[in-house]
Amino acid sequence: MAESMMSKAATMEIPINSNGDSRNLAEDDSLEQAAKIQWSLREKDLQQVMVSGPNLNETSIVSGGYGGTTEGIIPTSSIKGSNMHHTSSNSSMTAEEATRGVAVEKFDIVKKWGLNTYKCTKQMISERFGRGSRTVDLELEAQIEVLRETKRKYEIVLNLARALTNHFYSMVQTQHALGDTFADLSQKSPELRDEFGYNAETQKLLCKNGETLLGAINFFVSSINTLVNKTMEDTLMTIKMYENARLEFDAYRADLEELNLGPRDAVTMARIEAAQQQYQIHKDKYERLRNDVTIKLKFLEENKVKVMHKQLLLFHNAISAYFAGNQQQLEQTLKQFNIKLKPPGADKPSWLEEQ
Fold first, then answer.
1. pLDDT value at 122 more than 90
2. Which of 43, 105, 172, 282 places its Cα 20 to 30 Å from the Cα of 75?
3. How far apart (Å, rounded) are the C-alpha atoms in residues 49 and 159?
4. Is 0.90 surpassed by the pTM of this model?
């Protein structure tokens, strides 16, 4: 294509004047050389564009005016940078707005908590100094006091049972060591072999029965511990929530009563309406928790009777059978209450776990 254009430029027609004479030959040669130079430059530019391609990082902008056209090159990287700057500024503004929203939300929570704490503290001080009124459910509070007293007594029983278990375990270990010593002496003392042998057998039998009794006592301790530290404690946690709800209810009730005694202007009426809403909310919460406490106390009493009936019967039968020397009755007691004794060394880790 470039060669055809060059040949076409080389064979350009020379204009003839009206007399049939040609123009000045020197001028014609200069025109022909200029045309060749121009086409060669355009060919080089075309090859450079074909090889390297357009520069996408530069944009040619032509502006026309009275005096002609002016052409300038503006890097597109500056445009991209400005767009990225706007995008980052928008994202930073969005993150700042989100952070501000979270901060406002936390401030509202702290504000509500502080106001609620102030009202409850004021109500508590008023009750202690006998200046404020208090909502009282005599029957429910009597049941709560009985539960707390029962828990204290059961904790004493639990501590004593644990002490008995520790002491009895030490006695069983002593009997086991004494039986082994008697058995060893029966082998080394021929003249007292029978006497040492009898005592060794007696201590081994007592040790076996003691381990069986320990299984029954451990089961008794575990059941009492569950009753005291889980079942009763769960009910007492609900009672604590109920007492907090009662204090909040009385605080907002006193606040509403105080507003009702004041003037009835527009601002006060708005405050009274807001206080009435808060009063109703805390009243519903108080009544709901009071019903929960009543139900839990009822079920706790039923569960306590069932558990203690079974555990006290187990404790009595096991202790009686052990000190009566009735091994068969002692083993039958454990079977009756589905108590399985762990074999000796069951608590020790296996050789694989020790590796």
1. no
2. 43
3. 96
4. no
